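Hi everyone,

Forwarding the result from last night's run.
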Amino acid sequence: MLYLLLVVYAFLSALGLILFKLGANADNYFGIDNFFLRLNINLYMAIGVMVYVISFALYLFLVSRFNLAFLYPIGAGIIYTLILLATVFVFGEKLNAMAIMGGALIIAGIFFINMSGVN
């Protein structure tokens, strides 16, 4: 069950970042603009913030259950891999051979950390 929560945390974190990027590319936004604060936000960004806050709360729970030497690299690796996939399938960006090899090495690193029994 905890491993499933780790995957959910990584998915929500990646989703929040993807929504931030979608919001940054959008033209429609509402804002606060006064002497002290200038903030432009749209629906994608607002939902991204909510999703990211949920992922952070989940991370706080997970950090109390897993060793940090396991949780952080596994979570970061999964998030990076999901973001890499989103750049291709959501944003239509092109990956070069180095990015693909880097992603493969991250996946291999996740496998080796899992096999080491650090958790």
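Helices lie at 2-25, 43-63, 68-89, 97-116.

Cheers,
N.
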